[in-house]
Design brief:
Length: 297
């Protein structure tokens, strides 16, 4: 499915597994048929099917919460704050990233949760939650990627000519990186993110997701100051975006404006604005919150 409804589908699969275990093949087929024919509900809309308890369609604007979000929960349980910071920086700079794990469900959860770190941006490159053995040469690709590998294939992957690859081993909670990306992000942003993650990592709620959102807001929330509409459509000015910034922030943004995830984010915002629509999501709410407090989020 194209719908990122991980929790809903996890529950549905459990129901289907129960039917399969009990040999109730007809009931399983009937449930699949009913779900296939049912129209996609709106955000927060509920679906009631006679054979299973009702479920509610997720709100795409809501931040993932622990423990409701299995993806984020598994990532936070398996990976410590230090490695989460390194992983976030590697994602932000669009590196080649390999993630190893011996449990496929944890592997896919971590891969999808990593993508969520970038919100309101999204990974724009090769994205393979579980790479099959016959496609291991993808690990030698010259472009950025985020790929999950079962731990049993780790040695076969390492025997290949890997260049500038960031490797996270979820089983051992170890991360190897040839880059120093974390040092390229303004120190105050990293320090704030670290404090918030340490405070929220063991807590229920959306605190972890909000910590990454706050970091993204501090880094990119000033994009609106760089919007111009000189007798025509709204455009984005790199020069304005880089002006009036601290030296460390300016150095970071000079690299960031060339990243594909940032370009796609700006293009998406410009498209909305030029269609007469006002961007309305939790990122924009966070930008307003930070602006209201003089930027001291």
């Amino acid at each position: 499915s194209y719908l990122p409804w991980f929790e809903v589908f996890y529950k549905l699969l459990n129901n289907l597994a129960d039917y399969s275990t009990k040999g109730q093949t007809n009931e399983m087929k009937e449930l699949l048929s009913v779900l296939y024919k049912h129209p996609v509900p709106p955000a927060n809309g509920s679906i009631t099917v006679q054979m299973i308890p009702y479920f509610i369609a997720p709100d795409p604007k809501a931040l993932p919460s622990i423990p409701e979000s299995r993806n984020l929960t598994e990532l936070v349980v398996a990976v410590d704050v230090g490695n989460l910071l390194q992983l976030f920086a590697s994602m932000l700079f669009e590196r080649r990233i390999l993630i190893y794990c011996s449990k496929l469900s944890t592997l896919t959860a971590c891969i999808h949760a990593c993508n969520g770190m970038l919100y309101p941006m999204y990974w724009q490159h090769i994205f393979i939650p579980v790479l099959p053995p016959h496609l291991l040469d993808y690990c030698c690709a010259p472009m950025p990627y985020l790929i999950g590998i079962h731990s049993s294939l780790a040695e076969r992957v390492r025997s290949r000519a890997l260049e500038d690859v960031v490797i996270l081993n979820v089983d051992t909670n170890t991360l190897e990186s040839p880059h120093e990306d974390l040092k390229k992000i303004p120190a105050d942003v990293v320090a704030g993110l670290k404090v918030r993650l340490k405070r929220q990592a063991a807590s229920a709620g959306s605190g972890v997701a909000h910590a990454f959102l706050r970091a993204q807001t501090l880094l990119f929330g000033g994009y609106r100051d760089a919007l111009q509409s000189p007798e025509g459509p709204v455009v984005f000015s790199n020069e304005l975006f880089l002006s009036h910034k601290s030296q460390s922030m300016r150095e970071f943004l000079e690299s960031a404006v060339h990243l594909q995830c940032f370009k796609e984010f700006i293009d998406g915002r410009l498209k909305m604005l030029n269609q007469g629509k006002e961007p309305d999501d939790v990122f924009e709410e966070e930008v307003l919150h930070c602006g209201a407090s003089s930027g001291a989020c």
